[in-house]
């Protein structure tokens, strides 16, 4: 994964002051969960991973990284730390952080266009990524999340916000793998449902960790949701209820995988292992 | 052009608070010079304009609009007015303006992917737009521009900044028209050269208007470059020199068009009329 980003951003003809701030946030690491899901789903379909697939996996990670940089800005969540390191604007200044985030929304489409895959597949990937990230997805969810900060949300409203804010970008890897593996519309739909369950599990887990984990465990200041009086799954369902909801989503995801392994050539073991990691006792 | 944006952003399933702020900046208007160049170049090649072409033209305008919203932010140029209206963040707040700008970098790729053109052409358009806008283009130019604010630049450095910051996005329409009209690599190269000349003319003209025009004529506060002690073509070449440089670029553009009209079926009249409008006595 890292080599894809290095190949892309170490090019001599790029502006080093920009690529330095971009690389700072890319290399801050994180779990690379979106690329991992994409590559493991591809492998589950029996596809051998090539550099072309890494470009697609890299594209979704870059957009995710942009959202973290912009979310941390003073005008947004005003966070000083991310993944245990000072946030991008703390190191490079606000203007540079805005621009690094902007580049990280645009460059992924160059990665997709440069992926040596059938043109029809690339166009479908571009469509899916744009739907997942722009005003049909992540950014819309961020707006709803911001608007919701001052209100008490219902469970359905909270689910809707997260479905857009984080769900669609977590669904993309599964759908993208299906598109690359040239699966039927029906299989793609199952992969979309799988991604939605995983995405929801992911956000519930995040809310749980915000109240149960330490700075070292999650690499950012815990307890921020409660301090900001944000609507969370914990606030709406309490801790036990949130854990039950997390568990229900993971079981649903496992069931979809079981069904896919019956109806297609998919071997679900590595994806199941990833899902296993999302569990909290 | 407006109908494309309305069709795209009036959809019921979108978040109205986001689309409202997006539409505010889109509808602020401006000259729509990038879409115009694209559509006129297509027509010059004898292509009848369809909705699919309007989607491509719309895509470049949306990215341009995003750059204006983000440029105006307090952390960037801190502008209160744009095109004679309060800037986006003045009306909707900084966080919303950042997110509106983000959506306007991502949504254009959905427009491209949804354009019913041959897949190979769409992939080439995605590549060109990403190269023109991200860390190979506009955003890189914005970083160089910002870095250069505190220095005295050479003519070559200033040209390089503008080639990235505004040049590539002004070149895209000409190249995109060539790709859609399925012209040869050689013709595409001529169109790229044409776009570069037009782009340079455009920026020199902007610098000239900053010292010679009124608020009503340009819809923004004039004299800002001088007040900020920015390197401009005026500062490096003086007013007469900048006018001569503008004129030289426009003549070069006209010569490329004349050559293209000799070697291809291109009828350059409408493009020449646009170029005519860039002239300053």
UniProtKB/TrEMBL annotation, chains A, B:
Q: What would be one Pfam family of this protein? A: polyprenyl_synt
Q: Does the keyword Magnesium apply?
A: yes
Which cofactor does the UniProt annotation name?
Answer: Mg(2+)
Gene3D superfamilies per record: Farnesyl Diphosphate Synthase (1.10.600.10)
Q: Which UniProt keywords apply?
A: Isoprene biosynthesis, Magnesium, Metal-binding, Transferase
Query: Per its UniProt record, what InterPro entries does this chain match?
Result: Isoprenoid_synthase_dom_sf (IPR008949), Polyprenyl_synt (IPR000092), Polyprenyl_synt_CS (IPR033749), Prenyl_diphosphate_synthase (IPR053378)
Q: Which family does it belong to?
A: Belongs to the FPP/GGPP synthase family.
Its name, as the record gives it, is: Farnesyl-diphosphate synthase
Q: State the organism's lineage.
A: Bacteria, Bacillati, Bacillota, Bacilli, Lactobacillales
